[in-house]
Amino acid sequence: MSSRTVIRGGLVVTASDEIHADVLIEDGRVAALAASGTAAAEGFTADRTVDATGKYVIPGGVDGHTHMEMPFGGTYASDTFETGTRAAAWGGTTTIVDFAIQSVGGSLREGLDAWHAKAEGNCAIDYGFHMIVSDVHPETLKEMDLLVEEGVTSFKQFMAYPGVFYSDDGQILRAMQRAAGNGGLIMMHAENGIAIDVLVEQALARGETDPRYHGEVRKALLEAEATHRAIRLAQVAGSPLYVVHVSAEEAVAELTRARDAGLNVFGETCPQYLFLSTDNLAEPDFEGAKYVCSTPLRPREHQAALWRGLRTGDLQVVSTDHCPFCFTGQKELGRGDFSKIPNGLPGVENRMDLLHQAVVDGHISRRRWIEIACATPARMFGLYPKKGTIAPGADADIVVYDPHAEQVVSAATHHMNVDYSAYEGRRLTGRVETVFSRGEAVITEREYTGHAGHGVYTPRSTCQYLT
What we know:
By secondary structure, the protein is an alpha/beta fold. The protein is 31% helix and 23% strand.
């Protein structure tokens, strides 16, 4: 049965335009936009009308980097696909791209099937998968071609975590060469894990066991070195490169140089690097463990370079790297040894609001907010224009956003399945009011009206930025 919804009176903000317009949704898609008050807009008839006067009407967020139910360090990320996607919806994100994991000795297909089984029927919003490639061998390379054909078009490798996810330069080069041929995008965790392990061992031998030493051993120079090496390997292979969770000024400089040289190199940063710092890692009584992630938080002075990179386009995307572990019982595994603290922060619910605060604070414009949080991740990962914009034919993934509402971030009120907030007590201006996913209201005036199983798996085309 056909259903029609009209969102009236709001300021529609996309990556390219700001216009006071009414939006007509029909059968889960955007059917039309018309300037508010015009004859065309008055002609919109609907079963349901949403008054967005004084509000923004924005595309649903696309978070291209999440880890629901991810195994790490003898435990699992505390958000399931059900709880994590529900929290994402509360935060105005309507699509996630999570990471399926190939086990060493296993096939890509086995890893992908396992993640499909975790997610299917459990998600409140739409989802796709990247593939973590942990074991490069001839069969893996053939499987990469098959996955690209069926809509898994990006592959993550790690220069960090020896003995777990680590790939050496030869394995990385082989995967990049394959991606150069099949149109896939290589995503890189760029840290020199071999050198970091030496520094970890030396720090522990000196009795430096507190969480703050996690940030001290994972040095910015070792992120920059790995970023440089990944860029050069991609250049040799003739493949594109997307560097995940860029945290340091020196790594941004490597990306800027590569892009100035015309290379297909892209960079992502995350809210934690824009809003938190090593001051958090140094919090007393093991509280710093809450902020242990990799790449690590950096001294506050790195934030200016990250904001500048987002303004200039040398960093293109803000994703969360959402990988939550509870403080009680999970982060505590690393008491007395920072190297045993599970790496990851909760954030899938906070990203859109934190970036709106960046608009309020003058770091970025409204359209740039939508560009880095919605449109560019959708283009980067082959989801645009189905996702990431408000235009006729696009999925009706739409957020009615109140730019004047004030909130205080707290674990007491968030919806992520984790016992702390990385942004506890932070005052933000702006808040999600109503969220549509494919035309269905999953958040209705600050009330959850969605359900597990509404979200569907979304195959992706290849990166839309490749020259």
